[in-house]
Sequence to fold (263 residues):
Amino acid sequence: MTLRAIQSEAATDPAGAAALGVERVTHHYGKRKALDDVSFSVGRGSFTVLLGLNGAGKSTLFSLITRLYATRSGSIRIFGFDVNRTPGEALRRLGVVFQARTLDLDLSISQNLSYHAALHGIGARESKDLIREALSQADMTDRADEKARSLSGGQMRRVEIARALLHRPRMLLLDEPTVGLDVKARAAIVAHVRRLVVREGVGVLWATHLIDEIDPGDNVVVLHRGRVLDQGNVREVAARAGAQEMGAAFARLTGEGAAEDPA
Ligand SMILES: Nc1ncnc2c1ncn2[C@@H]1O[C@H](COP(=O)(O)OP(=O)(O)OP(=O)(O)O)[C@@H](O)[C@H]1O
Fold:
């Protein structure tokens, strides 16, 4: 794909479609129902938190969105493109940062990025420009030739985010991206992704079980034991639960407390 094709993509998106639309999705592992009639959407350029404890179904949902598993019941659309029926159109508009670290530690940072560009069919010249831009956005320009293993956990995550955005998707999924980071690195990653939302207009779905990663202005989807208990603007969700803030609202909705901070 050429740089121009990537840039003109917004013009071909079905008008008005959400960055991500999940509609009536149910998923079973054998007899166990991991997702039960899940519906929500992520608006273009919005930061939406998928809030749920371990086992809520967050990873299952990500596996369906990324087509690791086939969606058998319900539909998932990225900018209006159904991931099952038009997977190419849907998935090239999507960037993903997985919970587990996925950089090749023996490759340099720029080699890790080049590899991703090649997988997306981006030619050498465009790839060079995109990598330069991505490194600058991640504040990593001076580290480009260093091996990935020399980076701190927070820096690795920044490179993974840059890599996920290399093919210029307008929708970014992050599955518990701050796992294993200290408090400072955690805050830096959240702030970095929030900046991307504001500056680049990327729609973000941020899966977490940590209440303190949520801002009052965010949208939130509360997922518990495979079901969406409530969703919408954080202030509205809290008010509906009769709570002052999201931590108390989550506890009321689920009957369980969410974690504040792992440190
Ligand atoms: N491959 C699998 N086979 C059977 N059951 C599974 C499988 N993967 C997940 N589950 C079950 O499905 C439910 C949802 O799990 P899932 O991993 O999606 O939750 P999660 O919110 O991502 O939690 P975590 O953060 O711990 O990964 C859980 O009850 C889990 O035990």
